[in-house]
Specification:
Elements: H1 3-7, H2 20-29, E1 31-36, E2 40-42, E3 50-56, E4 58-62, E5 68-72, E6 91-94, E7 98-105, H3 106-119, H4 133-140, H5 149-158, E8 160-164, E9 169-171, E10 179-185, E11 188-194, E12 197-204, E13 209-210, H6 212-217, E14 224-227, E15 231-237, H7 238-244, H8 246-249, E16 252-253, H9 255-263, E17 267-270, H10 274-279, E18 286-287, H11 293-300, E19 306-310, H12 315-326, E20 330-334, H13 337-349
Helix pairs in contact: 3-4, 3-5
Length: about 350
Amino acid sequence: MNAATADTLNPLYPLDTLRPETREQLASEAAFSDYTRGEVLFRAGDIDDDTLYLLDGEVEATYPDGKNRQFSARSLQGRYPLGDAQPRRFTATVSSSRARVARLDRRYMEKVIAWDQIARHATVGDSATDSNRWVFRLLQSRAFHKLPTGNIERMFQGFEEVPARAGDIIVREGDAADYFYVIKEGAASVLKHLDDTESIVAYLVRGDCFGEDALLSNTTRNATVKMVQDGRLMRLARRTFEDVLKPPVVEWLNPAQASLLARTGAIVIDVRLPAEFEQRAIRDAINVPLYRLREDAVDRFDPDSKLIVYCNTGERSSAAAFILTRLGFDAYALQGGLLGMLRLQEKQQAP
């Protein structure tokens, strides 16, 4: 995104209050689109994830009661988001010969604005845009979309920066979990024992996070992370992670909600071990053990599918839902685990 495009955000509120490097980041993620007379930007009653700014042209707002109002990019009102209330309160139709609109992801924008304010006083913020790329990428992660904006300050205040050299083992497979990590600079490899051989299964770069699986599931590390380049890591202690990140990042369903979603096409995934699955499982569930989930999910499931994951108690399924969300899936964890769903199925089958 060139500087001229980023400059178009300068007069917009509240983007005009941001530091230049933060505004440049938002500009790089914004979608700039041109419209012609009669095209509809959104309709009354719509619920969406976008914040729209009218950069050029005019838009007519038609309310459900028949009232109309004009918005012009040249007016003071043009500095503000266009009808940002959810659900949308009016239908927005381009009334000028052409119009130009900037669209930004509302949740991401709110998180970046919060970060910008925090970074003015926090030790984790750097003045150079390039040094903050890890932050922007972390906030872009789908898994962190569910993180309330109010938790962002607590999260960044809890981060501790540590140096790392090529060859350092940051976490080792089988060890107890102590920290959640984000790569601020450098790169690392992820190694797992598969079929009695330790193999590299992924690489991590700036902005990638790791270590959350064991913290979410209260188990030992399921992989080894080894630095392949010198760098710096940001880490969050287990207690802070559990207080700030663990509750909001996983979306839960009770058995009744999960059953309804499954009947509409959602895929039910059992993330326990094969021996547990063979002993007893939810009807029509697919067994993908937690330790295989990252490697198998992308190949086995359609990215547009809704996925419901379960285990015996909810510990492993919370980690599974987080992993799948980070991979881009719409994933939910089952409250109460296997027993809760089996009880519901037995109740439904009873005469």
